[in-house]
Amino acid sequence: MNIALIGYGKMGRMIEQIARQRGHEICCIIDIDNRSDIDSDAFRRADVAIEFTTPTAAYANITAAFHQGVKVVSGSTGWRKDHSEDVARLINGGNTLFWSSNFSLGVAIFREVNKFLARLMNRFPQYDVAMEETHHIHKLDAPSGTAITLAEDIVEALERKEEWVSGTLTAADGSVSGNENVAADQLRIDAVRRGEVPGIHTIRYDSPADEIVITHSAHTRQGFALGAVLAAEYTAAHTGLLTIDDMMKDLLQ
Fold it and tell me: How many Å apart are CA 199 and CA 243, to the nearest integer?
């Protein structure tokens, strides 16, 4: 399979390495200094483009790839709030996007545990729930896309929660901004930015009697990169709006 990379930072380089190990060709690499190469024969050769960039660049990259007739796998977060409807229209027009806030297979498993626990805890209103995510200092969006996805799953299952809200943000220098006081029907997500942490997501159910905690902690970015390449392999054979849930169902059959 021919793969184009959009974004060539640490994640892009790791995706390249794993893709080559799995027998794929990297036919084009797009980074900040050669973005115009999206309009090239090399890019159009791609069966799938894997896009890991920034919240401000992702939408333009996705639409540019669609314009070239190339399917996209995107792991960029922070752009969907403003552009999800536009992308949905493009997908309905015949384009293909596989989007996930997190490509780690471990996170996919953790998400299923989270949904099961939330359904169970719906019966026990004495437990309040909150979440904390910790990532490296280079991450631009907060809370993380993965935290938002986990929170949306909780809100869907817990009748006592109407929405998630941003709580506190602890910056790399230790300064804290935001607010920890939220309404009873809101799920608070706190964010921490520290060092080179690949990603930690912790969900706490606290009651006067005890506390239940589940955590997923990534050791390296390698799991994310492998998941992105697996998603590209899945996307090459499918069309429309694709998710990690679709791929997991396929892998578990």
Answer: 20
- Give the separation between CA 28 and CA 16, rounded to whole angstroms: 11
Structure tokens of 150? 């986990």
> pLDDT averaged over the chain?
94
Residues 46, 26: Cα–Cα separation, whole Å = 8
What dihedral angle (degrees, nearest 10) is formed by the CA atoms of 101, 104, 109, 111? -20
Q: Phi and psi of 63, rounded to 5°?
A: -65, -35
Q: Tell me: the pLDDT tens digits for 218-250?
A: 998 888 899 999 999 999 999 999 998 899 888
Is the bond preceding 143 in cis, omega lying within 30 degrees of 0? yes
Q: Which of 135, 161, 201, 216 is catalytic?
A: 135
Q: Are 81 and 56 in contact (CB under 8 A)?
A: no
Query: CA angle 107-82-191, nearest 5°?
Result: 45
Q: How far is CA 4 from the centre of its chain?
A: 19
Query: What gap in Å lies between CA 166 and CA 190, rounded to an integer?
Result: 6
Residue carrying the six token digits 């996209």: 72
Contact 209, 78 (CB under 8 A): no
Coil/strand/helix, residue 50: strand
The values of phi and psi at residue 204, to 5°, are -120, 130
For 157, the 3-state DSSP assignment is helix
- pLDDT tens by residue, 88-125: 999 999 999 999 988 988 998 999 999 999 999 999 99
* Local structure of residue 214 (DSSP, 8 states): E
Is 135 considered catalytic here?
yes
Residue in the structure block whose two tokens are 């901004």: 177
pTM over cut 0.85: no
Catalytic residue among 10, 24, 136, 139: 139
